[in-house]
Fold Acyltransferase family-domain-containing protein.
Amino acid sequence: MAPRDANWIDGLRGVASFMVVAGHLCTAFVPWLHAPADDPKTAPHLFQLPFFRLCVGGRSAVALFFLITGYVNSIGPIGKSRSGNHDAAFTGIGRSALARSGRLVLPTMVATVFSWFLANTNAYHMTKHVDSTWIRQGWHRQEPTLWSAFTSLVRAEIETWTIGWDDYDGTQWTLHLFLEGSMLVYMIMMATVLVKPKARFIIFGVLYFYFWQLGEGLAVGALKGLNIIVGMTVAELHNHYKDSATTILPAPIPALLIVVGMFMAGFPQDNPQNAHWSHTMAHAMRSMTGKDTDIRRYWDHLGAATVLVGIFFSRNARRVLTSPVFNFLGKVSFPVYLLHNSLIKSVLTWMIYLPSAMNPPRNEKGEQMDLKRGSTMHMLIAIAVFYYILYRMASLWIQYIDPICAKIVNAAVKWATADTPTHGPNGHPIRNGSIEKTVLPA
């Protein structure tokens, strides 16, 4: 795979992580922007309008992460399957499945320890008193004893991967779904390595309709299953078209797909009935899905998937996503995701609410009221500083934490697979997961 083709998906991942952070900032400070208008009779604000609302919405970004998971984890096995190198495909899937857990779990554990340290050094104390409901819900007390602190840490580390909730960082609720999604990719690839591409397209289609009608909660419906399958389908298209993918469609069509996808991805998180355009979308989706399904996740999926397909066929979109800025955003996307909530509850909260905390507002009875945020300019400066600190820390994470985690995971996989047979059933040596035929000297 050419370097540019490898990088555009990383750039898209960087955009998704930036959108997640922006969405959480919106939820914290301007949650009313999640609706398309304040009420059906009120004109919308600029960032409540289609397209503009993507700047402050992060739900479709989560769908992008699952699409990228399906794409990245299947592109190699599909390529080996198409070339007939089935032994290499099976070996690659086996090793990737072993390594994937460590690549997700170890960095997440480190991020939880970071948040645990902040909580138990009372860095989250101010979050209990702020006027932002979302930040206040992320408050965690300073444990009274060292023993209770360590037991709460162990419980948080375990529950992140069992019940999907981390008391020290609620934004990690998606990570066990990403792990499940990766394993879903490997399971599907194990079952389809031996089939021809046309048959695999049919299988993907059947699985897509299965997940569409499932519509049962977050884990198995539109959030995970549909996005994983579309990501794998795009990986199949990549291996089919190779470098000619960006010349298949006339230039306006990929651009139109991206625009339509962005519109669909802007379906509001709250109160779609407050605007005609979102009310129409809600009515249409309810007619196509099962009872009591979360139609927001379906629009998130359709929007993100359409954007991904448009980018896949667009040379210009790929060129933008392979620029140095987007390459950097992609490189630090995972630590940005892991660190942003802890920094919002500490550094950003301090910057925004410190003036009020120095002179806490009180009611007529002398009881302390919620801390008040600073002026709009004060908040904008604080958010700009927060973003700098976040991406600087994420860059340091990539430089120091990631290599340590990678060494641990690689050593564990190497140890676990040390006794893997070095020869296939026909006696030919296996090298790099493939059977290499021995050529006898003349």
In short: The chain has a mean pLDDT of 90.
